[in-house]
Amino acid sequence: MENPKDQKNNSGFSSYLKAIRTAGTLFGSGIQLAASVVIMFFIGKWLDEQFNTAPWLMVISIVFGVGAGMYNFIKIVNKLDEKRANDKQR
Amino acid sequence: MSDITASHTLADTLRTVAQMEGHGEENGNLFTELLHHVYDSHELELPFVGHIELPRFEPIHLGNLTLDLSITKHVVFLWLSAVIVLLVTTVAARMNRKQTVPTGLGNLVEVFILYIRDEVVIPNMGPDGVRYLPYLLTTFFFILIMNLAGLVPYGSTATGNVSVTGGLALIAFIMIQYAAIRSQGLGHYLKHLTGGVHWSLWLIMIPIEILGLFTKPFALMIRLFANMTGGHIVIVALIGLIFIFKSYVITPIPIAFVLGINLLELFVAFLQAYIFTMLTSLFMGLGMQAAHEEGERHGY
């Protein structure tokens, strides 16, 4: 298998795709941040219906969702940073 | 930026439709009829034949769940895309086996395969990732063909249905966990779920980490669905302008815009298939990378 880095061409389109690859997770992390809030909202709403405690469990789950979303967001950014540092060293 | 203008166009069009509702009923009806082309339906439109009613099955009850397993337009195009992918890749593989220098269809498919392998899988997952290449390639070609099917006249985009993208995301979720467990071992995988904190914080940490596992495929599902549906709705909104203004003079402008958006859609079809594949491989790679880190830290 040839090393793909040997045959790198810097034409406009391939550098654009490279940019997408680099920014790829950041496309996702915004939606992930929102997704954890939305998922926790529905879980909280469902739990409220089960235990008849509206709206408290929903509020708690949303706060939890915001916190978890932030935590996971920061975690993935840190991981990408690490990965980029590793790639540079090589 | 295009998203902002797109949503504005849609909002303006809908507002105009709402205003026209009082004046002439047929305008609103025409618009809703056009909008039906975006959504799933029980009818199939074919050239020369007209409408075909697709079979409807009685809903199946499983406990509290009610499953409607009728064959809809999206199901037909899902199957059609699967068949096309199967045919194209089989023919390409046959062609490439016979000749040393690939030509035609075999060459086209090989370009995509090499690109995914060299530019997506190996940078994201390392050489070990080639093991998962067949899954990622299947996802890529399947999503690509489904996206493109919506741009063909009389076609429909199966990825514009949240259930379809949900199914794809579910498979991606399973594969991401499988890759992580396989390369880390179950013990390490479970240890990662604790986030590496003191045991007294596990009660908070474990739900957060588990939620993080689910948000990744959720984001994949929403992105693909929203991109495919959004593009089609913009096209419908622009074509709807012709019927709203009821004038031939205005026609060239929406047609020009629709042409532009259609070309953009063609690009988005490729881009979204690529992004779905790339993000799946990246998430799998992050799970696999964790194993290597752990190894370096312990000095293996």
Keywords:
heterodimer; A: 90 residues; mainly alpha; 2 helices; 82% helix; elongated; disordered N terminus; B: 300 residues; two-stranded antiparallel sheet; 72% helix; globular; disordered C terminus
Can you tell me about this structure?
The complex is a heterodimer of chains A (90) and B (300). Chain A has helices spanning 12-51, 56-89. By secondary structure, chain A is mainly alpha-helical. Chain A has one domain (27-89). In chain A, α1 runs antiparallel to α2 (56-89). Chain B is mainly alpha-helical and 300 residues long. Chain B has one domain (2-297). Chain B has a two-stranded antiparallel ribbon with strand order 1-2. Chain B has a two-stranded antiparallel sheet with strand order 3-4. In chain B, α1 (2-20) packs across α8 and α6 (162-184) crosses α7. Mean pLDDT of chain B is 80; it is low at 1-5 and 295-300. Chain A binds chain B through residues 4, 17, 20-21, 24-25, 27-29, 31-32, 35-36, 39-40, 64-65, 67-69, 71-72, 75-76, 79, 82-83, 87, and chain B through 118-120, 122-123, 207-208, 211-212, 214-216, 218-220, 222-223, 271, 274-275, 278-279, 282, 286, 289, 293.
